[in-house]
Amino acid sequence: MVSLRQGFSTSPTPASSFYENFEPPGPTVKTEIPGPRSRRLIKDLDKVFDTRSLSILTDYQKSTGNYIADADGNMLLDVYAQIASIPLGYNNPVLRQAAKSEAMIDGIINRPALGTFPPHDWAEVLRSGLLKVAPKGLNQVFTAMAGSDANETAYKAAFMWRRQQERGGPDVDFTDEEAASAMDNQSPGAPQLSILSFKTAFHGRLFGTLSTTRSKPIHKLDIPAFDWPQATFPQLRYPLKEHAAANAAAEKASLDEVEHLLTTYRVPPCAVVVEPIQAEGGDNHASPAFFRGLRDVTRKHGVLLIVDEVQTGVGATGRFWAHEHWNLATPPDMVTFSKKAQAAGFYYGDPALRPNKPYRQFNTWMGDPVRALLFRAIADEMKRLDLVRHTARVGEYLYAGLEDLDRRYPGEFANLRGKGMGTFIAFDNPRRDDFLARVKKQGVNIGGSGESAP
């Protein structure tokens, strides 16, 4: 950590000036982690709640900024950030103020069923928040509950869109045969259609999303799955300049495989879903040219492109949306979001992606106005402090520091990647789990992804 701090510019930025008194000067580790009090509390919690995935028993009142406090008084620099879902740190003063608003209080105690009883100002809340930062070309939003839910409902939109196209448009009603067969889970009412995803992808844990998740067997074991296709995500070699030809060949092979599956797979795909960076699957990157090629292939074959920005969205890559790095000629058909947005759902632009009848894309809550209000405050604060550009600058600094450490300790680093992608930086470590444990003892809370990436 000392090496990465050396040489950092101390020139003030709006972000650093505002938050300079918001955080402690550094981590404080007083006990082992978990400490004695945490162990007692975890034992008690385990009587009523499964604690096997628990990392830190957190004291949220004492957590502040980028530092997370545990029940034993340890204060850790938190670069894990609640599985990449906290955009402005703990107990952010601006967000705490927003939480005291009358609109927020109303949303908490009078939670509406948004599909049937939305607040009278719901359009203004959406336009001033979620839609204010919508991806270019996408001017409508479906609000959902979580990342898995966002992707699941995007898949449903894709299926209904495809059948609506095949049927002849939104004004053509369902046949009696379709209605009857749907109740028996049979075609044509329950059509044989699929979503194409990539190997090592992660899109969620619901039934549809789990069929497109390919990162770890433990997520999928014992759960029935759909017969849906998977293509190989390009496995790039690093440094990029030294392997340019091989990487270009890998990306072409992946695109060729996608095109082959789109035209030959036994259950026809109506959409391709892709992460800009395969985060949970190991922080796997691909070039902008690859994603432009993917967009071309989907348009050529009349299938939708769903970009899963649940992990990458809201500024972490130095752009508000990671797919902005690709410079697409035409936007994705849908962009899903959650995590750092503190809200969830998907953006779209084509009115045909709305089902032809009400209640087809529906649930009781359909999101949460409280989360939409919180996201509005987050987006406003990010703009006020120019945090997306600040993230890009910090990413450049971090990457340069890691390059230096890579040269000095080659046995600890492999495949350093993420240059120019803000703080979405990764490397592989042959002793990853030991590395994570040692770093936590030094006061840094960090998670792993894939088989070997910290």
UniProtKB/TrEMBL annotation:
Q: What class of enzyme is it?
A: transferase
| UniProt keywords, alphabetically | Aminotransferase, Pyridoxal phosphate, Transferase
Taxonomic superkingdom: Eukaryota
Any Gene Ontology CC annotation: mitochondrion
Bias kind Polar residues: ranges? 1-19
Matching entries from PROSITE patterns are given as: AA_TRANSFER_CLASS_3
- From the Swiss-Prot or TrEMBL record, what is one GO molecular function term? pyridoxal phosphate binding
Enumerate the residue ranges of region (Disordered): 1-32
Q: What is its EC number?
A: 2.6.1.19
- Read off the InterPro entries from this record: 4NH2But_aminotransferase_euk (IPR004631), Aminotrans_3 (IPR005814), Aminotrans_3_PPA_site (IPR049704), PyrdxlP-dep_Trfase (IPR015424), PyrdxlP-dep_Trfase_major (IPR015421), PyrdxlP-dep_Trfase_small (IPR015422)
Cofactors demanded by this protein: pyridoxal 5'-phosphate
Q: Which Gene3D superfamilies match?
A: Aspartate Aminotransferase, domain 1, Type I PLP-dependent aspartate aminotransferase-like (Major domain)
Give GO BP annotations, semicolon-separated.
Answer: gamma-aminobutyric acid catabolic process
Catalytic activity, reaction form: 4-aminobutanoate + 2-oxoglutarate = succinate semialdehyde + L-glutamate
Q: Which CDD domains match?
A: OAT_like
**The keyword Mitochondrion is assigned to this record:** no
Query: Could you tell me which NCBIfam families the record lists for this protein?
Result: GABAtrns_euk (TIGR00699)
The family annotation for this protein states:
Belongs to the class-III pyridoxal-phosphate-dependent aminotransferase family.
Q: Could you identify this protein by its name?
A: 4-aminobutyrate aminotransferase
Tell me the organism. Phyllachora maydis
